[in-house]
Each structure stands twice: as structure tokens, then as C-alpha cells.
Amino acid sequence: MAGVSFKTVSRVVNGEPGVSSAVTDRVREAAAALGYRPNAAATALRRADGRTATFGVLLEDAGNHFFAMLLRGIEDVARERGVAVFTSSTDLDFAREREMTAAYVARQVDALITAPSDSAGEHLRRVIAQGRRVVLVDRTLDGLDVPTVLVDNALGTRTAVDHLIARGHRRIGFLGRDPSIYTSRGRYAGYVEALTGAGITVDPSLVHREGFTGSSPRAAIERLLDLPDPPTALFTGQDVITMTAVSVLQRRGLSDRVALVGFDDFELADLLQPGVTVVAQDPRRIGALAAELALDPAGSGVHLVPTQLIERGSGEIPA
Amino acid sequence: MAGVSFKTVSRVVNGEPGVSSAVTDRVREAAAALGYRPNAAATALRRADGRTATFGVLLEDAGNHFFAMLLRGIEDVARERGVAVFTSSTDLDFAREREMTAAYVARQVDALITAPSDSAGEHLRRVIAQGRRVVLVDRTLDGLDVPTVLVDNALGTRTAVDHLIARGHRRIGFLGRDPSIYTSRGRYAGYVEALTGAGITVDPSLVHREGFTGSSPRAAIERLLDLPDPPTALFTGQDVITMTAVSVLQRRGLSDRVALVGFDDFELADLLQPGVTVVAQDPRRIGALAAELALDPAGSGVHLVPTQLIERGSGEIPA
DNA sequence: AGCCTTTACGACAACGTTGTCAAGATCTCG
DNA sequence: CGAGATCTTGACAACGTTGTCGTAAAGGCT
Lengths: 319, 319
What we know:
2 copies of one chain form a homodimer.
Chain A: H1 6-13, H2 21-34, H3 40-46, E1 54-59, H4 65-80, E2 84-89, H5 94-106, E3 111-114, H6 121-129, E4 133-137, E5 148-150, H7 153-166, E6 172-176, H8 182-197, E7 207-209, H9 217-226, E8 233-236, H10 239-251, E9 259-263, E10 277-280, H11 283-295, E11 302-304, E12 308-310
Parallel strand pairs in A: 1-2, 1-3, 3-4, 4-5, 5-11, 6-7, 6-8, 8-9, 9-10
Antiparallel strand pairs in A: 10-12
Chain A binds a DNA duplex (30 and 30 nucleotides) through residues 4-11, 14, 16-20, 23, 38-48, 50.
């Protein structure tokens, strides 16, 4: 339509030098009139560096507030740099994790940003060996030397449990997710450290770790509260479990009697009665940092994003 | 490595007939050993139908619970069918909307699933004219004959406002988003219909529509409650505004005095005091339906997903 | 004017696949 | 045992770009 070779179009579109301004204008006009967009598949295929300007993001659940905000953080950075983002949720299903990793690799993503399960080590190693960039968020795996963004789960939990201990609590329940989840292990470790640091022995009957016990968090909380010598405080190791605890405590009229601190902030935590004290993460920042590491060829190492204890009432109930 | 031509590899990988089982095994072994994955860019480039098994999803905010769940619904269906999903949030910024649409078109998505702004008509028309599949969710545009998934915003709102009227309320505040948002217009229309249907004239001083008024929802709620003759009930036209209303009412100690019904369900709505009555949508179903329409070449028309009034207490406070 | 440099373009190969076609090997059946 | 059918495989073009190179035209210098 502009009466030039397709190579000249390529030059104009990519802003390469060596095209007269008259021809440039003609090409631009024709491109606008036709709604021409370069075919990204062909571009990626031909480019020397093979870059596709695409990330693959693989998280547990894009419907969960924490991961949704993490995704927003990735998006924010990606959009600025013209990178498109594939997303998918695993729901902790390893088959899906493998399948989606393969799907992203087939689509030649420039980087895979993922919160891996413990089992992911093997296939991630292959992905890395093929020279594809991998960035880990929220969770990590031994022996994988890739840029990683984490929080100090043990430290955050220690802060929370110390906070409860300082208010006189000795019997503090722990409600955590399956220990096969990296964050869950760190949080349990922090709980144990805090208690032993204060000279309190860990009472296994106050500990619920999903997958070990088999029962649901709700049943576990009920069980703890039904003990002859029930806990005076609860630490919950994830937002969903925290909300479950709030629900159970409310239904039993114990909201103002049993202290509660949860890991992860969530919407409306301040509007509940009492407000829920939490160890907050900054998932948007975690995501943004991960995306920057994915874009920076020199990016490496483990980056810790700090957590913050937010007092809202539930964690300040004395023993 | 398997000692065959690359065409034979293609046959094995795609399960085409006419390859002996011995060769198939050799190829599979070699592929496994090398971690070979077909290059999706090359495949898409060469395929007769040009399919990329990729969707582009463009919503307002993946961090908002409604859109996050909508995205999950899309993901659920997409994964089943081997489709990868690009996601991006516009935050109502039209420049981003255009930019990301172009980015998805360049990447040859099989379908663009989007909640369009009013301004998107022009560029979407071009995208459709180029033969690319477009599916609208949550919002629609006149003169775009594409598969669409909506809820009946006016009906849902009428149900909510009728519910308040049935409990004796006559002065019912309306707190909505910018009328440039499709859903916001339908919800306001439903509010007006319900009131006039009950013989109540709409009092403009009880109506806040962001963008018209200029002020924030929080300021608007404060203003309404400060009126000499304040509303006895509020209808809030979106989850974020509902949460703001809960916050203001709580701070003023009016939670048990002023009735409240909100559009959109949200987490913890049942754990607030009182529980928040809402007109709930089923965003996951909306997303799943949209994805199915995107995959089905025969999919067309406007599909309405029903809303449901969930009574939790705040909407049952009498005048 | 004659030569060299620069500018502005096009021709062509290549990226890694799939679709088409051809050809050799093997099987079937009278 | 031979002719035809079928089965298995490879050669080659093509998808829409980018990178390399060639070349005609224009410009600069002596």
C-alpha cells in the first residue's frame, strides 16, 4: 500500500535509521489505515535475542488477595516496560504447576515468575538449564540459584508471638497451613523460636498444621477452644485461616476474650470487632521487585521484603 | 538425536498418524532427554488457522475481588482447554486500555476478553474488523455485535432498593461510581426505577455519583449523614464503596441505625457487625462463561448471569 | 569530470514449525 | 510372484518478521 518492500516497513516500525522521511510518512499512514501490527510470533522467531517481551506468572491462587496484589505488582512493572504477562493459578496442584510451566516455556516467556511448590525443583532446574530466566517469589527451593523475593516468615511470626507473650499469654495456639508449603514451615519455626525464647514449651495439642492433622482449620480451631485448658491467644499462619478464626471466635462470643494475630493483612481487618492485628506483607512490592529482577539481566540473590506488625485490637487482648 | 527429520518430530509431537512405534519411541525419548518443547511462536506462525491457544484479558483491576474471581473463572476454563491467559489491569486509564489491546493483538491472541470503557468502541471495532474474537464482560458498548456476559444491574439494584423500601425506608441514599462506567449507569437507573415505582421522588441531595460530584465516596457518605434530614438507608453501588460506607457508619456508631445494601459480595461481609446485606454477583461464573464463549466459534449474544440478594442484617434494619 | 563516501532502499536467508507432496519400503491379494 | 495399495518417512515451501548484504542514486571532494 505504501509501495515499499516489507523490509522497509520493518525499518519504519522499529525506528531503524536509513529511511527517508517521505517514505516513513507513507508507511506510517498505510500502517494506520490498515491497522497493521507486527506479528509478535514472527518477531520473536526472528529476533537475534529471541525476546518475546512476555512473562509467565504462576501463583497459587489469583483470587486470593495476597497473590492478586502480588500479580498487580508484577503487572505494574511489566506494563511500563512493554511486557505482557501470562497468569495462572495452581491451587497447589503439582500437575497444573508442571503443565503451566511447560506451556509458558513453549511460549518462550522471557522470565517465569513463580511461587514454587516443594516438588517443582526438578522441572524448574530443567527450565533454568535451558537458559530461561526464573524468579521465585514467596517461596524458595534449595539449590536453585535464581533471583528470589521472600519475606522472613520466621521473623515476622516471632514478632507476632512475642507480641502476644508480652501481653501475658502462655498458651498460644498455632494454626498453620500444610508444612509442605515453604511459608508455612518458616512461620511454624518462628512460633517455636518465640515460645522457647520465652521459656515456654511447645504444647503439641495447641498446634494445628494442615496436612499433618488432616482436619480443616475450622475444625482445628474448634478443637483448640474445646480443650479443658484452651489457648488464651491464637496465631494464624495465613489470611484465610485468620478469617476462619475470626468467624469461630465471633460465633462463640470469644472475640474479646481470645487474642488473635494473623500472618498477612486483609481487607476489612480494621472494621471487624475488634480489629484484627496482623503481620502485614507488602505483596505489591514483592511482585514489583520480582518483575524488576526478571527484567534485569544482572538481578540475582535473595531479596527480603520486610513485614510489619499492625496493631488493631485483637492482638492486644491480655491473657 | 533420534536420527529422524524434524518433520517426523513434528508428527510425533502432534500425534499425527503414520509414524512407526519404534520411531515414535526414539523421538519421545530424545525429546524427554533434551527437554524439547515446540516453539509456540513458530507453531502459531505456520498453523493454517493461526491459533495461538492464548487469550488476552483486560479488566479494571485484578487486585479487586470481583475482577480477581472473574479472572479465576476465565483461567479455570482456559487451563482445561490448554489456553494460556494474558492479564492486565487498566485502572480505568484509557491509554492503557488501548495500549494493552494493541499488545494483545500483536501477540495474536485467539480472543480478547475485556470489560471495556465507554471509549473503547473505536479501537475494539477495528480489532473485530480484523477478524479477531472479542468477548465483553461486565460492561458493554452499543453497536458491538460480540458475545457478552453481563448481569442485570438495574434489576439487581431494584431488588436491593425494593428490599429497603419494604422495610419502611423512604430516604435512601445512592452512592455510585462514575456514570462513565456502564455498571454504574444501570445501577443508578435501577435505583430511580425502584423509588419512582414506590411513588418516592428522587432527592438529588441523597445521590452521589463519583465524577459528577467530584468528591470521594467517603466525603459523600459523610455529607449525606450530616444532612439535616439524613437518609435512613444507603445503597452502595460497588464493593469498595460498600466497605467505605461500613467504615463511616461504624466510626459514627450508626451501623445499627442506618440500613445498608451494597452491590457485589465481598469477603467477610458476614463477619462484620451487622453482617452486610448485598446483591451478590457470581464473578467466577461470569468469567467461565466468557471463556466458553471465547472458545466456541458459534458463541454469540448477550448472556445475563443472575444476581442474588443475600440478607445478612444491615439491609434488614427498619426505618 | 572522476572517484569515493554516504544514503536509501530491496533481495534474500533464516528463525522453528506445519502442510503438501513425493518416494521408497512393506504389505495384501489374486 | 507381481501389481497395486498402504505405510512410513523426508524434501521443500511457507508463515511474517529481522539481520546481512548488495546496489543504485545522490552527495562531496579534488
